[in-house]
Protein 1
Amino acid sequence: MSGDAAQRLLRALCAQSPCSGSELAARAGVTRAAVWKQIEALRTEGVAIEAQAGRGYRLAAPIELLDARAIAAHLSPVLRRRFGGIEVHWRIDSTNSALLRTAAGDERVLAACLAERQTHGRGRRGRGWHMPLGGGIALSLRRRFDGSMAALAGLSLAIGVAVVRALAKHELAGVGLKWPNDVVVDGRKLAGILIELTGEAHGPCVAVIGIGLNLRLGVAGQAIDQPWTDLATLAGTAMPGRNVLAADLLAEIAAATDVFALHGFAAFVDDYARLDVLAGRSLRMLGTPTLVQGIGRGVDAQGRLRLACAHGECVVDSGEVSVRTIDGTVA
Ligand code: BTN
């Protein structure tokens, strides 16, 4: 899809919906024929656009487009100064990849990258991550740590806590964490976290922290092979704006990285335990060479999952397994 025309068209629809074909053409600076073509292209990208006889086109649900200035305006002045840059892309391969491609400053300097659309969004364990255009938040934050990579072992769990804190600002109830760091509501995934590290094994190293939050997946949800939910389902008409939500995520993640740099995962253990949806559940690890199953016993000080197994306690590292309940449903 030709990004600029589609982008201008969506902006015009966001500003006024319904909008007639000729008005859209004028606002987006394209021909009437191009309007039809770009509407189809936007639909292919997952934007639900209805055509109404005599009235033109309208968005099936309002979309607030991401805007770097609006995000920055929601941050505290202190935090705003710490962000060397907040990039918002119309389309990019992956926000994590974008931040991994450029160099990090010192540990006080943060960088953020967001995108309306990722063409090669990445999930954990080599999977892809897909969200419809404007239907989610794809956000990455980069930060340098002076310590070793090993010291960041529980960071992804701490970031899970930070994401729940950001959502709590919008009074979203019943949000929990499924080890290692899926953000879930009633066993359905609402957000995922992917942390990628570069630098020296013994430090300093750089963490790129990627968050994918489902806002309104619509028909795109049909392609997802695990139970999922989105904010539109959970929040209904009280749906928060995307820019304030992005700012809250950045603020909570930045704060969590500061606390983590000083105190490690120990500072998050109690909050994680309160949010842990697997504690006390019958669990089975997937992808391990031998069968590992038992009752979830929370996580240890390094963020490893503890299981009460038939022959005593087992501890499982993050990053190598999925967790399902023994009856086959996803916890
Ligand atoms: C998971 O598999 O649960 C992790 C998903 C992480 C997706 C986010 S979207 C923003 C950032 N950019 C990526 O390519 N991936 C992460």
Protein 2
Amino acid sequence: MIFGAIEAGGTKFVCGIGSEHGEIFKKVTIPTTTPDETMGKVINYFKGKHIDAMGIGSFGPIDLHKNSSTYGYITSTPKPHWGHFNLVGEIQKEFPVPIGFDTDVNAAALGEIEWGAAKSVDSCMYMTVGTGIGVGAVVNGELLHGLTHPEMGHIFIRRHEGDLFEGNCPYHKDCLEGMAAGPAIEKRWGKKGIELAEEAKVWELEAYYLAQAIANYILILSPKKVILGGGVMKQQHLIPMIRDRVIELLNGYLHHESITSDQIEGYIVSPGLGENAGLCGALALAKKEYLGK
Ligand code: ADP
Ligand code: ZN
């Protein structure tokens, strides 16, 4: 089987060709400019590659309801030119194959369940901390959907008492994304995260916010694996700080050996698929659609 995979992001589209076993044979990165320009390049890339199905993990918000007249659209994004854009329709016109479509982070969660860090379990959550914060989840083997799709990056968290930053989410100001995504770090401290690597207080505060969110997700979803990816998580020292804080916050309430200082290293983890988590996730969406599951 040959599957096409698209990780559609606000700054770049990563397109690849792979198999039903999660192997990526080749991939290409296309900048996200205007839909005309970007989609033209995406479509050209897949032409003549004889794909059997396609998977698209996309930035959002997106319409995932198959009986909706705007199914497959990117809906209300503030990203210029891309609001109300029929992403699945544009691909479908050129490639009459089954197309799996979901959020970028739901896709990544599915990829991690199929081939990555959550291979041994039937439920997990995948959180990306990058330009924004997004979270996807697989629960009992199924992707988590609802009224629309979960938007767990925009939850409300307790502000640190010493933190005077007002928050930069255009909708909520000091929601999780507004306080802890890459641009919030940059705005609060006046430098990019990568330049602040040595500043302990930056990462203590970051862990303070991310751990609150993760503790909330654990309490609500009870995931069997928590996977943390995205640019900000490239700070290697952050994940151990988050693990310690999550244990502290839950304070022994959840009786499971995964949430103990001995075992949490295997519970809150980096993506097993590394940099390919998103693209493999799109591949997993293609496979799922092809198999009609
Ligand atoms: P996107 O979310 O656009 O797909 P990324 O996941 O790479 O892209 O996230 C980009 C954000 O992550 C930017 O705000 C950037 O400053 C931040 N970032 C990237 N690399 C690092 C790093 N090594 N340390 C801290 N922050 C980083
Ligand atoms: Zn918000």
